[in-house]
User: What shape does this take?
Amino acid sequence: MTLEARIGVRLGTLDLDVAFDVAGGEVVAVLGPNGAGKTTVLRALAGLVPLDAGHVRLDGRTVEDAAAAIREPAEQRAVGVVFQDYLLFPHLSARDNVAFGLRARGLAKPAARRRAEEWLARVHLGGAAGAKPSALSGGQAQRVALARALATDPALLLLDEPLSALDVEARLSVRRELRVHLDAFDGPCVLVTHDPLEAVTLADRLVILEAGRVTQSGSIREVTSRPRSPWVARLVGLNLYRGRAHGHTVALDTGGALTTAAAAMGEVFLVVHPHAVALHRSRPEGSARNVWCGPVESAEANGDRVHVRVGGPIPVVAEVTPAGAADLRLAAGGDVWVSVKATEVDPYPA
Assistant: This one.
């Protein structure tokens, strides 16, 4: 079972044009800033938003094609959806919420309720089958929503920010359980999330969506080690630059230049990890090939490190220890010298 999608939707100011495939048993996470079109992608796949262009095919079967005027309604698509706010029917028990989709597909009530109880047992809610949603915790309600989506044996599973409404403790346990169920699901799954940890722990592959377009896709390692946009770089905590390389020197698009240990030619991206950035109050001596001066713009504690944002000709974020921040009197602001070894500047084709 595979998903082939090319989604063209114009909705208000959003101009969405996205294409991607998902293999059976694969989980693809769609990440991007607010307003990028992530939820619209999911709603289009579910049949809740019509396509203006493109198509959706499940295992080679066309469920929607804008050019051919083919469009199966949402209720006829073999799609299971877990919404961010669960959307459980408040007047129905957990059992009947799970059975609802089965009944809509024509299964007799006794059989639907038996299957619903089996799925509630799978998500560790067998004892809460008769409970109404108002009596369930957030984690329990999300498990009911997952059971409802999976009980119909969907060809495609869609997850819209499935853990965002949970508190930290519930999120940890539900994420662990969700991973187990996703491992057992043999169809394609598309996960929309704003949480990089959720994407890394649940997904096999990432699709980055910005302003209605895919700006990067690939394995988790490929995307996190080779970001191709400032948003992705900020997401994974890296400094990203773009410029034109000539040998070991890269002239940056924003001005200035950096020296690399690896030679390159043409348009490249450069990545520098914050922990590879050294800060000094006076010009440093030593072998670092990249040295410049800039003003301290901010210094913020982040766990056991302090993230320091330095402006100037080559803006950069450095990561130092609290003791190092105190020794450099970073809270006082002012100018600092930045040094980065050429071996710590990683170029790759733009």
